[in-house]
Structures are given as structure tokens and as C-alpha cells.
Amino acid sequence: MTHAVEQEQATVIGTVGLTKRYPSVTALDALDLDIGHGVTGLVGANGAGKSTLIKILLGLLPATSGSATVLGHDVATASREIRALVGYMPEHDCLPGDVSASDLLVHLGQMSGLPHAAARERAADVLRHVGLAEERYRPIGGYSTGMKQRAKLAQALVHDPELVLLDEPTNGLDPSSRDDMLALVRRIGTDFGIAVLVTSHLLGELERISDHVVVLDSGRLLRSSATTEFMHATGVLLVEVQGRADADQLLGQALVDAGLQAWPAGRAVEVQVLDETTYDVVRDAVVDLGLGLVRLQERHERIEDVFREGGAGRVQPV
Q1: Spans of all domains in the chain
Q2: pLDDT category, 232, cuts 50, 70, 90?
Q3: pLDDT, tens only, 141-190
Q4: 29 CB contacts (<8 Å, ≥6 apart)?
Q5: What is the CATH number that goes with domain 13-230?
Q6: How far is residue 14's CA from residue 48's CA, in Å, rounded to a whole number?
Q7: pLDDT of residue 124
Q8: How far is it between the farthest Cα atoms of the chain?
Q9: Which of 6, 56, 9, 65 is closest to 34 using CA atoms?
């Protein structure tokens, strides 16, 4: 299952001043985005505007003002063309319970224009890739939550789209099933060459699988950049020690007395790195206090820090 999408830095999704207002709330507020190929994570708390954005991109919801394009097509005038090129996995359960995954995908493949034989072959191929090959003839109503999520992902892929929009694909999954789903999402972008926009309110998920991350808060853009740029070094050391109940307090005070900036971080101590001698001062302080050094590492910024700085503390870090 491959896709001939060129991986140049062309815009897959673009918005300019995109706004959606309701009588009592602004769901999107003058949103400017430029999203390219690869896997792009769209992160924000519930109510941040993620689902609203996806519905506008699909032409299912009109914008109040501004504009948006998907794969070069204007969402206001070419929604039919966009939906032919895009796969969509909705957040909520929406599959018919009395139909098998195979029959559903064959039907959807034929609706997209494939002959019956090609649609059946395509359905089998997609269901194998999402891990439902052995269960494809069972009615979807008897599936577990994880299997239903896989079936929803499969229906988004059956017509060989150039872009897939995945709305909370790990919703309701246990940790093991969540890991499996994230691996599938990553493969879509890397192995299959399909552009992916995936939403989540779980920060760690998007850090793991995304090439690029877009952060929304209350319909506003907080940040849009490569995932690696979120996780740059902060110039802060995280030091964890053991040996006494108050080991972290003792170490923190010793480091301050030695002229360093240090502050508590849970059961650890964070230290501002002044120069290379900072490591020596920390090491010597731990030895002088007779403590055991558990961890000494440079702290990196996480997506969570962007929300903390922007005042959006409702997004879960894991």
C-alpha cells in the first residue's frame, strides 16, 4: 500500500484569518496555518477548535470569515473535490453494527469509483494493514473499542487518499491499544506517503508521532512549528538525588550557597546551567552531602510548556 505523493514542502492545508463564530462563542479566531506533508499533530483541550477546524476543511461547516485551502482546493467552492481526495476518521463511534468491516470497506471503495473486484482487493489490503485481517468478516457491532477504532481508520484509507484527517484516533483506548494506533498513524505518514493531520488532547502522543505540531487554545493559534523545535534544550539541569527524606532540599540549598540558581521540581532539583563548571559544582555538592545521584540530565522543553506559558493548562501531558 503506497501512495505517490511528492514530499516537497508544498502546502497541504492553508488557512488565512479563518474564523468561526457562534452566538455565544468563537470557535476559531483569525487562524493562520500552513501545513505541509508528513504527520502534523493538532493539539488542544476539548473546546479548543480542533473538530471545528476539521469540519470546515471538509466543507461540512461554513466559516464565518477568512479562507482555507486543502490540497490546493478552496474549501468554500470545492468541497466535493476535497472530500474525494481526503480520508476522515471521526472522533465518535459511527460505524453500522450489523455490517462486517469487509463489506463496509468494499461498499465505500465502490462509492469512491473503484470496480467491485478492485474495491474488494483494496478493502482486504487496508484491513490487513490496520490489523483486522482475521476479523474482517465479523459484524462491527461485536468489535472491541480498539477494533472499532481500527475499522474507522481503515474506512478513511480505503479510497487511497492524499490526506487523512484523524480526529482523536486513540479516544477510549487502553495504553497498549493506544500505542498500536499511534504506530499505525505514524506508518501512514512515513511508509504510505499520505499526509496526516491528527488531533489529540494528549501531549505525549503528538510528541511521539508528529513531524510538526500545531497548538490551539480557545480557537487561537499558540504555536506552529516542527516537533523538534518544541523539545529543544532549555539550559536547565534536572537533578534527582536520594539518601535522605530531605535530600532534594539539602541539595537545592547547597547549590544556591555555591552561587547557582536552583529551585525545586517535585522530588528533584532544577539548576540553571551557567557554563561547563555547573556540572562539577552539582557533582561536588552531591558528594559533599553524602547523597546518591539518581539522575543528572538536561531538561528539554515539551509541548506542555507551551500551554503553561500560554495559560492553557487544561491539556493532559500524557
Answers
A1: 13-230, 233-300
A2: low
A3: 999 999 999 999 999 999 999 999 999 999 888 888 999 999 999 999 98
A4: 19, 49, 218, 219, 220
A5: 3.40.50.300
A6: 18
A7: 96
A8: 77
A9: 9
So what's the architecture of 233-300 in CATH? 2-Layer Sandwich (3.30)
Q: Which triple of cell numbers denotes residue 155?
A: 474506512
Mean pLDDT confidence for 188-212: 87
Q: Three-class SS string for the chain? A: CCCCCCCCCCCCEEEEEEEEECCCCEEEEEEEEEECCCEEEEECCCCCCHHHHHHHHCCCCCCCEEEEEECCEECCCCHHHHHHHEEEECCCCCCCCCCEHHHHHHHHHHHCCCCHHHHHHHHHHHHHHCCCCCCCCCEHHHCCHHHHHHHHHHHHHCCCCCEEEEECCCCCCCHHHHHHHHHHHHHHHHCCCCEEEEEECEHHHHHHHCCEEEEEECCEEEEEEEHHHHCCEEEEEEEEEECCCCHHHHHHHHHHHCCCCEEEECCEEEEECCCCHHHHHHHHHHHHCCCEEEEEEEEECCHHHHHHHHCCCCCECC
Question: How large is the angle between the packed helices 101-111 and 116-129, nearest 10 degrees?
Answer: 130
Cell of 114: 473503484
Closest by CA position to 169, among listed 209, 211, 210, 198: 198
pLDDT in tens, 76-131: 999 999 999 999 999 888 899 999 999 999 999 999 999 999 999 999 999 999 99
pTM, rounded to two decimals: 0.74
Q: Do domains 13-230 and 233-300 have the same CATH topology?
A: no
Look-up: residue for cell 466535493? 80
Average pLDDT of the chain, as a whole number:
88
